[in-house]
């Protein structure tokens, strides 16, 4: 079975979903993530779904589950990079992901969590 | 008919030219009609393929005419005129056998005329459908108000089809511009009922899922009254009376500070 890799950047765990999610993969991810949050003492979780084209209600619920799970362990979840089509589908399914914060892209998501961004070049000094 | 090909063709072109009144040049028309004429000759001669080609050519011609704004009878007359051209020649021969042949030929031409009529109607419907779609896109602009702030001025009644277009364009533009805020202005929406409110809520929810905060502006006194009377809940979506208020709100939230100005 495929496992989704979990990366650690400072105090933030980054989950970038690049594959079509199977139910089993999602369950394994939740388990792994809970484990990693406790082990690393992470303060935030970013789920990057830029590469996800198709969602169903199961995946939609996954975001909510992961969010409430990590909140119990004092880590905030941000879902970043949702495509327009995916957003429309979730709304039509009646899933509003209450309690999950969202951002347009990874950079904005990092900023939302207050994670320090590496300053690259002269254009990168505009962070508040 | 074969022996008098040129005479008939000339007469046909003359008759049709009178009908189209200069919207097509005579040489263009002659090329079109002589192609048709050739095909008609071949199909009355019993060639299967030619009949198919003839229908295709006629379909194409009536479709173009429909786009160019010809009336349906003008289009059909260009086919029916052939009957007159042939009849004149048959009359000139004055032969009973020729007349009998003409009757069969005439009913064939009638079929072709009906075909142009049908294609014409279909093409016109297509044109109308295209225009409706273009109108829909025109009526739902998404504009950039400020760095990171998009504006969606809605004018007219919101129905499901329009809301879908609004939602899609807004979300696409959010991704393109990386905007954090969107102002949905409903000053131009004459009435807000539960359905419209539902559509607005969906749009705001979808934008929120992508990480953008929306504010609804342009709530006029009567609309506020209707919304309260209908018991519509906008939840935690911020609403403002005017576009200016909404823009100020969004700019404040995005960390842009306005300095000076009369109202500040």
TrEMBL record, chain A:
CDD domains the record matches: STAS_RsbR_RsbS_like
Regions crossing the membrane: none
Family matches, as SUPFAM superfamilies: SpoIIaa-like (SSF52091)
Pfam family membership, one: STAS
Domain (STAS) ranges: 2-113
Domain of life of the source: Bacteria
InterPro entries: Bact_StressResp_Reg, STAS_dom, STAS_dom_sf
Database matches in PANTHER family: RSBT ANTAGONIST PROTEIN RSBS, RSBT ANTAGONIST PROTEIN RSBS-RELATED
Name under which the protein is recorded: RsbT antagonist protein RsbS
TrEMBL record, chain B:
Record Pfam families: RsbRD_N (PF14361), STAS (PF01740)
InterPro entries, per database record: Bact_StressResp_Reg (IPR051932), RsbRD_N_dom (IPR025751), STAS_dom (IPR002645), STAS_dom_sf (IPR036513)
Entry keyword set: Phosphoprotein
PROSITE patterns according to UniProt: STAS
Domain of life: Bacteria
Keyword tRNA-binding: no
Phosphoprotein found in the keyword field: yes
Coiled-coil regions, chain positions: none
Residue ranges annotated for the STAS domain, each copy included: 139-250
Entry protein name: RsbT co-antagonist protein RsbR
Species of provenance: Actinomadura luteofluorescens
């Amino acid at each position: 079975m495929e496992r989704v890799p979990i990366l650690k950047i400072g105090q933030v765990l980054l989950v970038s979903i690049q594959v079509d999610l199977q139910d089993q993969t999602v369950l394994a991810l939740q388990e792994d993530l809970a484990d990693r949050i406790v082990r690393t003492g992470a303060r935030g979780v970013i789920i990057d779904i830029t590469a996800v084209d198709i969602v169903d209600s199961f995946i939609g619920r996954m975001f909510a589950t992961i969010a409430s799970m990590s909140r119990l362990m004092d880590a905030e979840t941000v879902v970043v990079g949702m495509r327009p089509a995916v957003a429309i589908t979730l709304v039509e399914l009646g899933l509003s992901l209450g309690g999950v914060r969202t951002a347009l892209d990874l950079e904005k998501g990092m900023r939302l969590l207050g994670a320090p961004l590496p300053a690259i070049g002269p254009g990168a000094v505009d962070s508040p | 008919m074969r022996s008098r090909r040129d005479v008939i063709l000339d007469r046909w072109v003359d008759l049709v030219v009178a009908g189209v009144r200069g919207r097509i040049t005579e040489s263009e028309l002659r090329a079109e009609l002589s192609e048709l004429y050739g095909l008609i000759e071949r199909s009355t001669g019993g060639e299967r393929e030619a009949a198919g080609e003839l229908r295709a050519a006629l379909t194409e011609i009536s479709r173009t005419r429909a786009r160019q704004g010809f009336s349906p009878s003008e289009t059909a007359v260009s086919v029916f005129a052939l009957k007159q051209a042939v009849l004149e020649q048959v009359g000139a021969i004055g032969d009973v056998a020729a007349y009998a042949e003409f009757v069969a030929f005439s009913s064939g031409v009638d079929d072709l005329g009906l075909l142009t009529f049908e294609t014409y109607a279909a093409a016109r419907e297509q044109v109308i459908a295209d225009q409706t779609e273009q109108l829909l896109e025109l009526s739902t602009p998404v504009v950039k108000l400020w760095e990171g702030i998009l504006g969606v001025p809605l004018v007219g009644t919101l129905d499901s089809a329009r809301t879908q277009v609004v939602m899609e364009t807004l979300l696409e533009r959010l991704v393109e511009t990386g905007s954090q805020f969107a102002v949905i202005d409903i000053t131009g929406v004459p009435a807000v009922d539960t359905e419209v409110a539902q559509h607005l809520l969906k749009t705001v929810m979808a934008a929120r899922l992508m990480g953008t905060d929306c504010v609804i502006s342009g709530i006029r006194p009567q609309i506020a009254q209707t919304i309260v009377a209908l018991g519509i809940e906008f939840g935690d979506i911020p609403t403002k009376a005017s576009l200016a208020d909404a823009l100020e709100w969004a700019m404040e939230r995005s960390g842009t500070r306005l300095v000076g100005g009369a109202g500040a």
